Amino acid sequence: MITEKVRAIWCRELRRDEITVDDDFFALGGDSVIMAKIQAGYIDELDVEVPMDQMYLNPTVASISAYIEAMGAVTRS
Q: Which residue segments constitute the domains of the chain, with CATH numbers given?
């Protein structure tokens, strides 16, 4: 569930129709401005604040989703 929500946020903010869980944020054209928008999406939609350094260390949907899940985040339906 978290992975799909993260993927949806990335698709919206990167303005791409399809992103796989293994696509690299930076290879997709991501930059610090888009990263800040994604960070705001995590707060608004997942009720979790992801530090910027973790977003750099986890540049795929799969890795950042695993990080968010490890934080104990739960998603709203």
A: 2-70 (1.10.1200.10)
